Amino acid sequence: MKQRHSSTYLLFHLVFHTKGRERLIVGDEEERALFDFLRQKAHDLDAWIEEFGTWRDHVHLLVRTRPTIALSEVYGQMKGFSAWAWRKQWPDRPFNWGDGVWAESVDPLDCDALRAYIRGQRRHHENGSLQREWEPDSP
Fold it and tell me: Which of 51, 95, 126, 132 could, after both became Cys, cross-link 118 (CB 3.0–4.6 A)?
């Protein structure tokens, strides 16, 4: 049995979709840019993206935060900044996130399968091996 200990951070699995579920994340360039935008804002908030994965219309993140910052502040700022940075980089390709976010707290000592699932988003969507408990509102 794994030993439990108190920690000075919280771990969350976050999923958010593009507005209207538009398929805007179409390749490696967009995926890398979104990761960089989200990571930059997370860093500004003293949060860390531990895992990241995308499919054409959504992202999955495993985010570590301090318990002193509201989760809504973390994902709200990350979504806002990444949409702004996308539009700045690609002004001819409008981008917005849809309203809301799906979030669940995660046990840091028991999340290896979730980590692998987030990293393998493309593969899971391409071959239909989705885990419904980790794919909220999937079509």
Answer: 51
pLDDT at residue 139, as a whole number = 41
Q: What is the pTM of this model?
A: 0.84
pLDDT in tens, 63-74: 999 999 999 999
Q: Return d(Cα 46, Cα 97) in angstroms, integer.
A: 22
What confidence tier does 3 reach under pLDDT thresholds 50, 70, 90? very low
Nearest Cα neighbor of 98 from 3, 24, 12 is 24
Please tell me the distance from the alpha carbon of residue 55 to that of residue 24, in angstroms, as a whole number: 9
Rg over CA atoms, the chain: 15
Closest CA to 38 of 25, 48, 28: 48
Q: Which residues contact 35 (CB under 8 A, 6 or more apart)?
A: 49, 52
Residue whose structure tokens are 């408990």: 133
